Amino acid sequence: MKLTILGTAASEGWPAAFCRCENCSRARVLGGKNIRKRTGLLIDGTIMVDIPPDALALCQQQGIDLFDLEHLFISHPHPDHLYASELQWRRRHYSHPDSGRILHVYGSETTRRQIITAVEGEWEACRLDFHPVTRWQTFHLNDHGSVTAAFATHSPVLECFNYIIQLNGCSILQGYDTGWYSDETWERLTQYHFNVVLMDCTAGVLDESRIHLNIRDLLRMKQKMHYLGIIDDRTAFIATHFSHNGGLLHDDLVKALEPGGVVPAFDGMVVETRKTDYGVENVVGTAAGR
Questions:
Q1: To 5 degrees, how large is the angle CA 128–CA 125–CA 63?
Q2: Dihedral, 22, 23, 28, 34 alpha carbons, nearest 10
Q3: Could you give the 3-state DSSP secondary structure of residue 169?
Q4: All domains of the chain in start order, with CATH
Q5: What is the C-alpha to C-alpha distance for residues 53 and 43, in angstroms, rounded to an integer?
């Protein structure tokens, strides 16, 4: 299984367009892994979690296309995770060759309404099929595996999900955007064992963990997952969804997270997971595309 982390920034991106704070200014000078577009995840070219406003730029930059995409899971309808207007370019006039492939989109009722507005109700023309999601609902993806919608602690007014993705004997927890999990979510997660965890680290060094995580509580999350048997020492535990307000550029994040066995993601980062006779092996941190 191949995971491509399409973007790693919080809603404003990093550097933010209208900002000259020290963190944004340093990122502009240093470049490289300090340039972060909004967060998304692509799995084996056929499954995607969220479609951020930077999806096109990221695909162009990494030499990736979404022609084979079959399933799009939306974690929640905040604009950095659902840029619904991108879906209108699936019309036959704009996408060649015409495969006729239907894109199955999964999300809340608010997500559905936003997509309807963006594509002007033309589901068939855009080759879309929408599937409403409720918490802890499981979707079976033909022979590929299954995806389950976990409850994320993120918004008091919106239904927000983290997705549990099980494919080819491997399990992934997409853990952004969320604060500390509810008791219900912790109890449900004990039914799983993850080979890869992508976890929110929006707040960085800030003292904030209500709807996002800071570094302290990210590490506490990892410790609790290990204690509950949800992960083990071979699990690839990766931090993502960083805000410039969090205060740490990429090399600073490496220094802060490495002692806790956590790897900070960067745009275009690839994680390859494969099942062997000795269990599941992860290759973490290569770059996608060209």
A1: 65
A2: 160
A3: coil
A4: 2-287 (3.60.15.10)
A5: 18
In tens, the pLDDT along 90-122 reads 998 898 876 678 999 999 999 999 999 999 889
35, 8 in Cβ contact below 8 A?
no
* Token representation of residue 50: 């969220």
**Where do we find the tokens 């506490």?**
220
CA–CA distance, 62 with 203 (Å, rounded to integer) = 27
Say which residues have a Cβ less than 8 Å from residue 52's Cβ, sequence separation at least 6. 6, 7, 37, 38, 39, 40, 58, 80, 81, 83
Beta strands in 29-91 (DSSP E): 40-43, 47-49, 71-73
| Of the candidates 117, 189, 97, 122, the residue with the CA atom closest to the CA atom of residue 152 | 189
Q: What's this model's pTM, rounded to 2 decimal places?
A: 0.95
What is the tens place of the pLDDT at every residue in 62-81?
899 999 999 999 999 999 99
Indicate the SS3 state at residue 71: strand
Range list of β-strands (E), the chain? 2-7, 40-43, 47-49, 71-73, 103-107, 128-132, 138-140, 145-151, 161-167, 170-175, 196-200, 236-240, 263-264, 269-276, 279-287
Measure Cα distances from 28 to 10, 57, 201 in Å.
Answer: 17, 17, 21
Residues linked to residue 211 through DSSP beta bridges, in sequence order: none
Residue type, 222: K
3-state secondary structure of 197: strand
Confirm if 204 and 245 have CB atoms less than 8 A apart: yes
Phi first, then psi: what are they for 278, rounded to 5°?
A: -105, 10
Separation between Cα atoms, residue 18 and residue 10, nearest integer Å = 15
